[in-house]
Write a structure and sequence with these properties.
Elements (H helix, E strand, L loop, with lengths): L5 E7 L7 H12 L3 E7 L5 H10 L2 E6 L4 H7 L2 E2 L1 H6 L4 E4 L5 E4 L2 H11 L9 E5 L3 H12 L4 E6 L2 H11 L5 E5 L9 E6 L17 E9 L7 H9 L4 E3 L2 H16 L5 H9 L5
Parallel strand pairs: 1-2, 1-3, 4-6, 7-8, 7-10, 8-9, 10-11, 11-12
Antiparallel strand pairs: 3-5, 5-6
Helix pairs in contact: 1-9, 5-6, 5-9, 9-10
This protein binds NADPH dihydro-nicotinamide-adenine-dinucleotide phosphate.
NADPH dihydro-nicotinamide-adenine-dinucleotide phosphate binds next to helix 5, helix 6 and helix 9.
C-alpha cells in the first residue's frame, strides 16, 4: 500500500507569486520528509470554507498570506499567545484533537532576517512603517519588542493605521501620520514597506525626505513586487535596501519546524531560491 503523504498548503489571493510551495519542497528534500504542499487561491468570500475543506480532507498545516491573516486568526479554534497578541495569523495547524490552531511567526522572521542577513540593528531607531495590514501588525509588534525609539505608521486608509496604533498600546513610541503628511514627518533610520501595492502593480509615491543618509530600507515583498520600493530607496540615498525574501524563508522554515519538528537549513534554501527572485 502506498504511504499516505501529509498535505500542506499556502492560501492567499493572489497566490500565483508565492514561493512557499517551492520552499517547502526544498525543506522536504533537505530533511527527507515526504509531504505534499500546494498553493490555494481563495478570495475573502471563499477563505473560511476553503480552510475548513482543506483540514476536513486531511490537511495538516497551512500558511496564510494576504489578505487573509485576520480571517485566519478569527476562524481558528485555538490561538498561540503570539497570535492572540497580534490578532492575526500566518500559520494554521491541525491539532491532534482536530482543532485548528492559529500562530504568527511573521514578526520573528522579519527580525531574524533584518538582524542576520541584512545587518540591521533596529535598537534605538526612528522607524517608518508603511502599511497597516496583517503583515504590518506583526512587524510593528516585533519592532517595538526590538527596542526601537519610535514607530510612525502611515497607511492609505488612516483609520486602519489608527486601529493598529491602538492595538500596540504604546502612546509614547507609536504615532500615526496621514499618507498625505509623509512629506513633513521624516527623516527615519529604518523604513519598512509593508503594503501590498507592489504585488498589485500599483504605483507608490513616496517623498525623498523620508530617508536619513544612513537609513536602511526593508520591503516585506520580494522579487518584482519589491522592485519599485527598492529602486526608490536607492534613488533617495538610503545606505542599504533589502527585500523580504530572507523573511519569507525564515518564516517558512519556522512553520516547517512547527509541523515536522526539524529546523531546515535556511541559508541553503535561500541560496537556491534567490536566483531570479531577488529585487
Ligand atoms: P494586507 O492585505 O493585510 O494589507 C495590505 C496593506 O497594503 C494595507 O495596509 C493596504 O492599505 C495597503 N495597500 C494596498 N494597496 C495599496 C496601494 N495601492 N497603495 C498604498 N497602500 C496599499 O496584506 P499583508 O499585510 O498580509 O501583506 C502586505 C505585503 O507584505 C504583501 O506584499 C505581502 O506579500 C508581504 N508579506 C511578505 C512576507 C514575507 O515573508 N516576506 C510575509 C507577509 C507579508 P489599506 O488599509 O488602505 O487597504
Amino acid at each position: 500500500m502506498p504511504a499516505v503523504v501529509s498535505r500542506y498548503a499556502v492560501i492567499g489571493h493572489p497566490i500565483a507569486h508565492s514561493l512557499s510551495p517551492r520552499l517547502h519542497g526544498l525543506f522536504a528534500a533537505q530533511t527527507g520528509i515526504a509531504l505534499e504542499y500546494n498553493a490555494i487561491d481563495a478570495t475573502p468570500d471563499e477563505f473560511a470554507d476553503t480552510v475548513r475543506a482543506f483540514f476536513a480532507h486531511g490537511g495538516r498545516g497551512a500558511n496564510v498570506t494576504l489578505p487573509h491573516k485576520a480571517a485566519a486568526f478569527a476562524l481558528a479554534d485555538a490561538q498561540t499567545a503570539t497570535a492572540r497578541r497580534l490578532g492575526v495569523a500566518n500559520v494554521l495547524t491541525r491539532l491532534p484533537d482536530g482543532r485548528i490552531e492559529a500562530d504568527s511567526n511573521d514578526g520573528a522572521g522579519m527580525l531574524a532576517d533584518m538582524r542576520g542577513r541584512c545587518g540591521i540593528d533596529p535598537r534605538g531607531s526612528e522607524v517608518l512603517l508603511l502599511g497597516a495590514g496583517g503583515a504590518s501588525r506583526a512587524a510593528a509588534f516585533a519592532l517595538l519588542d526590538a527596542d526601537i525609539r519610535r514607530i510612525t505608521i502611515a497607511n492609505r486608509t488612516t483609520e486602519r493605521a489608527q486601529s493598529l496604533a491602538g492595538a500596540l498600546a504604546d502612546a509614547t513610541r507609536v504615532r500615526v501620520v496621514g499618507w498625505d503628511d509623509l512629506e513633513s514627518c521624516g527623516p527615519f533610520d529604518l523604513i519598512v514597506h509593508a503594503t501590498s501595492a507592489g504585488v498589485q502593480h500599483a504605483a507608490l509615491a513616496l517623498p525623498p525626505s523620508l530617508a536619513r543618509a544612513s537609513a536602511a530600507a526593508y520591503d516585506l515583498s520580494y522579487g518584482p513586487a519589491a522592485r519599485p520600493f527598492i529602486d526608490w530607496a536607492r534613488r533617495v540615498g538610503c545606505a542599504s535596501a533589502f527585500d523580504g525574501l530572507g523573511m519569507l524563508v525564515e518564516t517558512a522554515a519556522t512553520s516547517f519546524e512547527h509541523w515536522h519538528g526539524v529546523r531546515p537549513d535556511v541559508d541553503a534554501a535561500l541560496a537556491k531560491i534567490s536566483a531570479g527572485n531577488r529585487s
